[in-house]
Write a structure and sequence with these properties.
- By secondary structure, this protein is of the alpha/beta class.
- Helix content is 48%, strand content 10%.
- The protein is built from 12 helices and 6 strands.
- Helix 9 (195-212) runs parallel beside helix 10.
- The longest helix is centred in the C-terminal third of the chain and has 20 residues, at 235-254.
- 41% of the residues are buried.
């Protein structure tokens, strides 16, 4: 059985299994290595994970924590999306030749509060984090989307529970066609968002992860790209949303040194140009871009 066939089969099995609460996959690194394409390119202030020291190992453990972006969510149940964690680990293994195991605890719709109350309270998650060599974390986009939905609901004075940010933005678009001032009210509401709550949730999450992780384990977090960039919303509101994202990213980036994690800069990447029909979630190219940013390509 060729190494190429084994890698393809492993990727297929991984993506087919992503519906489970936790997905674990065992992967054997390929024997062949990719040709050196020159120095890595970094986006913004991105740092990248290093596989140095893993060469020849058969027990490199990886834990994935986060939302639907980390999960590799696909809007089409007939199309599997391989998540960035799997893509990044395969790329690193090709250079160092090691075997690795990925435990994926990413959950659709997860926000920072849910990370602390629903994920990091589970014994199997804590056990996985404590033995991992690499920990990937993606969270924060749902904090933003939930705030957008709540703000739209409040401004429009409606009891309607929006199922998605897209649905909320469509309702806002219809309302602002009759009253353009509503967009300004949304911006004002977003600017008054309590960042301290997000920051407190972030600190609590990192306190927990760092208390669990073993010495030498690498933590890689992704910051937030604009998940509303492809939705048809007023330009003034889009600018307001980006200001909110910048503020959230400052929270994420400022604690990097304190907790010793590396930040993959998605805000300055092209991820938002490679999303699925919902306009929010990365397609397969988008997931590859995230993996490339993590690996410093």
């Amino acid at each position: 059985m060729s190494g190429r066939w084994m890698r393809t089969a492993a990727a297929f099995l991984l993506t087919c299994a992503l519906g489970a609460a936790a997905v674990t996959t065992y992967v054997t690194a390929p024997d062949e290595q990719k040709e050196d394409t020159g120095p890595a390119r970094e986006a913004g202030n991105t740092e990248h994970v290093t596989a140095a020291g893993f060469a020849g190992r058969e027990d490199v453990y990886v834990t994935v924590l986060g939302d639907s972006i980390a999960k590799g969510y696909s809007v089409d149940e007939n199309v599997a999306i391989e998540p960035y964690s799997s893509l990044a680990m395969r790329r690193m293994a090709e250079g160092e030749t090691f075997q690795y195991e990925i435990a994926d605890y990413a959950k659709n719709g997860l926000d920072s509060a849910g990370m602390n109350t629903k994920i990091l309270t589970e014994d199997d998650v804590c056990g996985s984090v404590s033995r991992s060599d690499i920990i990937f974390i993606t969270v924060g986009s749902n904090d933003l989307l939930n705030e957008c939905k709540s703000s739209v609901q409040e401004i429009l004075d409606t009891d309607m529970k929006f199922r998605s940010a897209d649905e909320a933005m469509e309702a806002l678009k219809e309302a602002t066609a009759e009253n353009p001032l509503l967009a300004l009210k949304i911006i004002e509401a977003l600017e008054q968002w309590d960042y301290q709550t997000f920051e407190a949730n972030w600190v609590e999450m990192m306190d927990t992860v760092c208390a669990l992780k073993k010495d030498g384990a690498q933590i890689v977090v992704t910051n937030i790209y604009n998940p509303l960039a492809n939705l048809d919303i007023p330009s003034t509101m889009e600018n307001g949303v980006e200001n909110v994202i910048r503020s959230m990213n400052r929270v994420i980036e400022q604690y990097g040194e304190t907790y010793g994690y590396q930040t993959a800069d998605l805000f300055h990447s092209d991820v938002c140009r490679h999303v699925q029909p919902d306009g929010l979630h990365p397609d397969q190219t988008g997931q590859q871009i995230i993996a490339d940013v993590i690996c410093g390509e």
